[in-house]
Amino acid sequence: MPANEFARVSRPSKLGRRIEELESPVLFSYYRPLLEKNMKVSKNLLVMLCVSVPSFMINLDGNIISVSLSSIARSLHADFAAVEWVISAYTLTFAAMLMPAGTLADRFGRKRMLIIGLILFTLASALCGAAQNDTALNWARTLQGVGAALQLSAAMATLSHAFRGLERARAFSFWGSVVGAAITLGPVVGGLITQYLGWRWVFFVNLPVGIAMIALTLFAVEDSKDPQAKRLDIAGVATFSGFLILLTLALISGNRAGWSNSLILGEFIGAGALLAAFLAVETRQPRPMVDLYFFKRPTYVGANIAGLAYGMAFLTMLTYLPLYFQNGMGHTPLASGLLMLPMAVPLFVIPRVVARWLAPSWSGRLLLTTGLTLVGVGLIWTSTEMRGFAYEPILVSMLVASCGAGVLNEETARVGMTVIPADRAGMASGVSGTVKFSGIVIGFATLGAILFSRVEASLTATFPRYSLPVSKELARMITGGHFHAAQMLEGQIGGSSFAQLSFGSGYEAMLMTAGAIALIASALSWMLVDAGETAPIGTESIPGHIAVLGD
């Protein structure tokens, strides 16, 4: 072999020299902190993806189909009332299963439940997209709600377990930004997919995401569990689920059947009895699904009141406002979804602002009350614009409410968990999610009843000659956006004018009520949440931070 060739082969490569350097004990001790820091950042990023992406899909699916219901009804030859259960079946199951899902995550492991939830959610999405009738679709949506509940409880417990101190605050802010964007982008994404691909792809789009997240979770997430967790609280699950279902049925059916109807009254009484039974059952469990002991702490009660009001007041409006844009202002589903897009900005930006600038100096009590106050003021301001049917004033006032929602989106969960032991993180996350989504379920039904009642009252004042059945039928037409049909029933050329005015009056009352709920909750949170227990997280006490979450 030539000398120059021998020298080239025998000379160590750059990679070889680098390996030899790293094998040196002195140099390895020098590089080790940097390597560990980079590995930690990479691991934290992967964990955040495993937690945030499924949460994004869960919340997206909660309202992505609100603009697709008409297309679904036409495709499956179902009446609109039957297809409305596409939303209710998912939300009800989701809310009812979150707490037992938290218990399962504590007992059998958060990673395992996250994977099972992903599998169920992905499978159910495929069944939803392939459904040939409304019954099959609604049952698939029910299964999807179960998978979503398992995912969310396990994801939040994983988040709470994996991060501490300032890192946890940054992680929750990142998660809150992702979820906030999903909640608001739902109508936009739903409109785009429905218009260009068809409503079935609203569900099929979950398949590649679900498969990728299953693989990434298997690789990146470390398992954790509560070593003292016991068996599933079957009695607690049954009584709480029954309470929520009966209450929702009564609120939804009351407008049509009448609030004095014996069936409606029976549903309300049954809901109250099941709630009492649930509380009694939980006090007798050695390791209950909901540990009522923690509700003796005012801070925990105040945080859950804030979460309930957030769901009832603001998140419910994200479903009703697209209907206002379509029915009241005459926009297409896609255009209505796009009109919601500016409201996504505060929900994405504000949690990051909170984590970087406010959380280190503001207590959890101050953050909760500030967020609820902004939501209340913004919704009441919006209510004053409902009869004008102009987009710009509504956008300005709703941006105020969205800024408050951006604060609440992750603070309601974080503040509640500050007074809960780490080994009960699954239970706490289940309660937090259940409270928020129960607020959506109850708020949607309650505020819908207020909308209908106000429209009916407006019609009765305008046309006192109408009998009660005729007024109710006219109110149903108007709340459904069928202004032309209402005009034909009235038989007047100007009929559309009174229909639109009564519709705006109903939305005015609904938004005013939602704003009042937020302001009342703000006052209660200020009185109950302890500023010391939710003290600001000082950056000086935490060595380093997660660059990918805050920088």
Automatic annotation (TrEMBL):
Record flagged with keyword Membrane: yes
Transmembrane segments: 41-60, 80-101, 113-132, 138-159, 171-193, 199-220, 232-253, 259-281, 301-322, 334-354, 366-383, 389-409, 430-452, 509-529
Signal peptide: none
Domain Major facilitator superfamily (MFS) profile: 47-533
InterPro entries: MFS, MFS_dom, MFS_trans_sf, Sugar_transporter_CS
Keywords noted in UniProt: Membrane, Transmembrane, Transmembrane helix
Protein name: EmrB/QacA subfamily drug resistance transporter
Species name: Caballeronia udeis
